[in-house]
Automatic annotation (TrEMBL):
This is Ribosomal protein S18 acetylase RimI. It comes from the Bacteria. Residues 1-36 are annotated as: Disordered. GO terms for molecular function: acyltransferase activity, transferring groups other than amino-acyl groups. GO terms for cellular component: ribosome.
Amino acid sequence: MRPACRRPDTAALPEHAAPSPPHPARPLSPASPRPARPADLAALLALESASFAGDRLSRRALRHHLHTPRNRLLVIDRHGQPAAYALLLMPRRWRHARLYSLAVDARARGQGLGRALLAALEAEARAAGYLGVQLEVRADNAAARALYAGAGYRPLTSLPAYYADGAEGWRLRKEFTPEP
Ligand SMILES: CC(C)(COP(=O)(O)OP(=O)(O)OC[C@H]1O[C@@H](n2cnc3c(N)ncnc32)[C@H](O)[C@@H]1OP(=O)(O)O)[C@@H](O)C(=O)NCCC(=O)NCCS
């Protein structure tokens, strides 16, 4: 399985979309996440190619994840189209679910969509009995690292040369606290 949470393709995005500068105040409240449908495949592929420079999920891989009952692929719509998606893997033998991919359309960033998708997937993992959620992120992906840190993810281990271009990664984990 290829590394999760690939490098954002900032070079391919409009200047305002680069993830490094802090984003402005939120203009919109995020719509609710919903399960992805087969009809979303083209929009998911477009999000992939706009968001990641390499190691993209192929059409075939996305279709596979869409049809694997133990995976959760959620989207949030803007203007009737998926503007963000996130994929969680929940194999039976794992104690922690794994966030495998998360991408928000450059025009919809900074509006809480990433955080909303993450929270929705965490709720799914908790309901399915997992102890928490684990993920990998590039050390140089400041926006994603801030999102995960704010959501309670803590560094588990450093992953030297984890990515195809030799970049360092971090494995992060969030342990669920027992419900009151
Ligand atoms: C990382 C990404 C998913 C964040 O999605 P988003 O919808 O823009 O994030 P949100 O609006 O939900 O922001 C939630 C938190 O993330 C952090 N964050 C988001 N964008 C940020 C930015 N440009 N700079 C710094 N922190 C940022 C902040 O902590 C923010 O909380 P705050 O608004 O209270 O400060 C999005 O930038 C993206 O798709 N990037 C390209 C693909 C990618 O890197 N995916 C992750 C792979 S691990």
